[in-house]
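INTERNAL AUDIT FORM
Audit reference: QA-55
Scope: verify that the stored structure record matches its stored sequence.
Auditor: D.O.
Record contents follow.
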Amino acid sequence: MPSENQQDSQNLLPKGPRHVAIIMDGNGRWAKQRGRLRIFGHQAGVKSVRRAVSYAVSHHLEALTLYAFSSENWNRPAQEVASLMELFVRALDSEVKSLHKHNVRLRVIGDISRFSARLQERIRRSESLTEKNSGLTLNIAANYGGRWDIINGVKKIAEQVQEGVLRPDNIDESTLCRYVCLSDLAPVDLVIRTGGEHRISNFLLWQIAYAELYFTDVLWPDFDEQTFEGAINAFSQRERRFGGTEAIDARAS
C-alpha cells in the first residue's frame, strides 16, 4: 500500500482517466514459466494488486476495478478454484486494514451468493469497514460476468414494470444504467488487459462501451507501476470522440 507521502503526491495527469478497469491475466503462464503450480502465480498476482492500488491512490484515480474471478472461472480444476477462494479470504484479511488506513473504499461486485459463508462474511466485513471512505473506490469483480450484470439489471427493471412503478415506453439507456454494477461511479475510461490476449472476456460489457482499450504482453505478476504508467500515458495521447467528430475531455463533464 502507498506511503503517506505517496498519498499526498499530486501526480494526476490532466487528461488522465478517472476510472480504470483491469483484466488481470497471465498468472498461470507466469507460474508455468517457473515450473510451479498455477496457484503460485495467483499468489504472486496479489503483489501486483497491491502495486496497482498504490499507483491508483497516489495518482488520485476515482475508481479502480479489478477482474479477479469471472463467472466462467468455476470451470477451472476444482483444486485451483478452492485455492483461489482461500487466497481471496486471506487477501481480504491481510489487506483491508491497509486499504482503510489509506481511505480506500472496497466493494465486491458480482454474484457472491455462490461463495462460502466464510468468504461472504469476509466480504461484508471488509465492505462495512471501508464504506464511508472517500478516496479511491476499489471494485473487485468476483463471480462476475458482463452478461450476468445486464440480465440482472433487466430483471430489476421488469420487477418495476410488474409493480406498475415503471412504464415500458419510459425505459431507455439511462434506465438500465441505474441497475447495472458501478452505476454510482464515473464511467470506465480505460480498460487494461495484461497477458497478451486481445479480448474482453465478458467484463463490464455495458460499462465499457466508450472506454479506451490497452493491451500489454506483460503477465499480471510482472505488472508494476511503470507498466501502469505506460497505459496511462497511452490513454492521455488518445482523442476521445464518443461517437462525435470533436475530441472530448471526459474529465470536463
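Auditor finding: record pair retrieved intact. The longest strand covers residues 63-70.
Action required: none
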